[in-house]
Amino acid sequence: MKKLIILSGAGISAESGIKTFRDGDGLWENHNITDVASPEGWRKDRELVLEFYNQRRRQLHEVEPNQAHQLVAELEKYFDVQIITQNIDDLHERAGSTNILHIHGELFKSCSCNNKNLVYEEKGDIRIGDKAEDGAQLRPFIVWFGEDVPLYKTAQEKVKEADIMVVIGTSLQVYPAAGLIHDIKDDCLLVVINPNETGFGYGQRAVVMKESATKGMKLLFDKLVNLA
After folding, report:
1. Residue 12: which of 111, 62, 99, 83 has the closest Cα?
2. Burial 166-191 (b: 16+ CB within 10 A, else e)
3. Is residue 133 domain-shared with residue 222, that is, in the same domain?
4. In this predicted structure, what is the pLDDT of residue 197?
5. Most exposed among 55, 80, 94, 206, judged by the fewest C-beta atoms under 10 Å?
6. Residue 169 among known ligand-binding residues
7. What CATH number did the domain enclosing 9 receive?
8. Has 56 been labeled as part of a binding site?
């Protein structure tokens, strides 16, 4: 089976009702990004950060995968599919995809603030005083701005194997994830589905579809199956 990489971003989850932040104003749910998604914000106000992600977690319980997620899952019948997602939700999993690399972390997990290798399933709220087994405060299992991306090298190795790469719902402005585009083989087919301009200059390298994630996947699905 051909190797198909799906690189997904906030745009695919937005169609399920997951609110995203916009780089233009630096706000996420009316919060400054550095206040809720950085080590500095955590040091400044742990309670604010915990409640912010508690709200995101509650919201995630209320939404469902959309048709784009479902069509991506359906592609596993025809390809060796590897999803690399910048999203912290579990909508790909719920749609039925089985091979997912969450390079920015997972909302339904927590970890020790002193040791990110101590990871726990977390479907409910995290409160001040909730401790990991090492006695440290639990924090969201999220890669914040300014932190290393531990799974990036793994993602790079996966991308190098791709016969086809489909980028869905990301402006390719957040690094290092956006840099994965540079790791594909010369003969890898690159398709980008995004209604807005992206931060990457493709030249003749990519087939660009200026569509929403759902519409783009509906248009692309049969064409991909014919390449399997």
Report:
1. 83
2. bbbbbbbebeebbebbebbeeebbbb
3. no
4. 64
5. 55
6. yes
7. 3.40.50.1220
8. yes
pLDDT one-digit tens code per residue, 163-181: 999 999 987 777 788 789 8
Annotated active-site residue 102? The verdict is no
- pLDDT for 21 equals 64
Paired tokens of 157: 């190795």
Residue 52: CB partners within 8 Å, gap ≥ 6? Answer: 29, 31, 36
Determine which one of 69, 92, 102, 104 is catalytic: 104
Has 14 been labeled as part of a binding site? yes
Residue bearing tokens 């690094």: 175
Q: Which domain holds residue 47?
A: 19-62+106-142
Quickly count: other Cβ atoms within 10 Å of residue 49's Cβ.
23
The answer to whether 193 is a known ligand-binding residue is no
Q: pLDDT averaged over consecutive 10-residue blocks of the chain (228 residues)?
A: 96 89 59 91 97 95 98 98 97 98 97 97 98 98 94 96 95 78 92 77 74 96 96
